[in-house]
UniProtKB/TrEMBL annotation:
Key words of the record: ATP-binding, Isoprene biosynthesis, Kinase, Nucleotide-binding, Transferase
Pathway(s) the chain acts in: Isoprenoid biosynthesis; isopentenyl diphosphate biosynthesis via DXP pathway; isopentenyl diphosphate from 1-deoxy-D-xylulose 5-phosphate: step 3/6
Annotated catalysed reactions: 4-CDP-2-C-methyl-D-erythritol + ATP = 4-CDP-2-C-methyl-D-erythritol 2-phosphate + ADP + H(+)
Catalytic residues, chain numbering: 12, 134
Species of the source: Parahaliea aestuarii
Annotated ranges, domain GHMP kinase N-terminal: 67-141
Protein name, entry field: 4-diphosphocytidyl-2-C-methyl-D-erythritol kinase
């Protein structure tokens, strides 16, 4: 059993999101394009033989049984395996950037190595799916085209564009948006080629903007500088830029009541690269 690791848990963007149906179990069928980012949380994980999982850092005030990091660790633990996990949070909660899922996936990847579990990446994806539909994406560790509830992944190579992300200071619960009566749930299936030709949208954007005025304000403000879009079902909005300098120039103009982040799109997760 090796001792410790410090890994980035990257954020993600949904470059588009179409809801194509609703299953009998309440989950939504969708199509989306996940873009990983070179920015995220940092997890420092040390393995031991205590039989306990100790979590420190910004735990968002969650009880251990509700924290995805702890739940991920417990999904792999048996015998006297234990760990101390410290999380340095940068990804805002409820922002649609996948922070909780990425933290859980990074925990699975790290402990699989530290505890010498020997599970394949596919087995880790299966272990992560009950924790959240986005967890398999971060375990697979590659920007991807996704279908099903988000777990059917096809790795893609995307341009490594620069993005400005704005968090307008509100928390948007995923469950609220997916249960909204006004949410479009019958978008026709689309091809990847059509998306790259510009035939896309986020079916959740109108619902979130109507319910959360600050999100609507951020979308309208960012639209002055380029196409502004919502990521996932969260509060964060984003726009693509041709360079880091152009993204940072707009970031400096973002109203003080909002948080701004500049990040580059990447195709392979830093966590997966570090572990390999």
């Amino acid at each position: 059993m090796s001792t410790g690791l410090s890994l980035m848990a990257p954020a993600k963007l949904n470059l588009f999101l179409h809801i194509t149906g609703r299953r009998a179990d309440g989950y939504h069928e969708l199509q989306t394009l996940f873009q990983l980012l070179d920015w995220g949380d940092t997890l420092t994980i040390t393995a031991d033989h205590s039989g306990e999982i100790h979590l420190s850092g910004d735990t968002l005030g969650l009880a251990p049984e509700d924290n995805l990091i702890v739940r991920a660790a417990r999904a792999l633990r048996h015998g006297d395996r234990g760990a101390r996990i410290h999380v340095d949070k940068r990804i805002p909660s409820g922002g649609g950037l996948g922070g909780g899922s990425s933290d859980a996936a990074t925990t699975l990847l790290a402990l699989n190595q530290l505890w010498d579990c020997g599970l394949s990446n596919a087995e880790l994806q299966a272990a992560g799916l009950p924790l959240g539909a986005d967890v398999p994406l971060f375990v697979a560790g590659h920007s991807a085209w996704a279908e099903g509830i988000g777990e059917r992944l096809r790795a893609v190579e995307l341009p490594e564009n620069w993005y400005l992300l704005i968090h307008p200071g509100c928390h948007v619960p995923t469950g609220e948006i997916f249960s909204a009566r006004e949410l479009t749930r019958n978008s026709p299936a689309i091809t990847m080629a059509a998306v790259f030709q510009g035939a896309y949208r986020n079916d959740c954007q109108e619902v979130v903007a109507r319910r959360y005025p600050e999100v609507a304000k951020a979308l309208n403000w960012l639209a002055k500088f380029g196409e502004s879009r919502l990521t996932g079902t969260g509060a964060c909005v984003f726009s693509r830029f041709d360079s880091q300098a152009s993204a940072e120039a707009v970031a400096q103009q973002v109203p003080e009541s909002w948080q701004a982040y500049v990040a580059r799109g990447i195709n392979r997760s830093p966590a997966l690269s570090e572990l390999s």
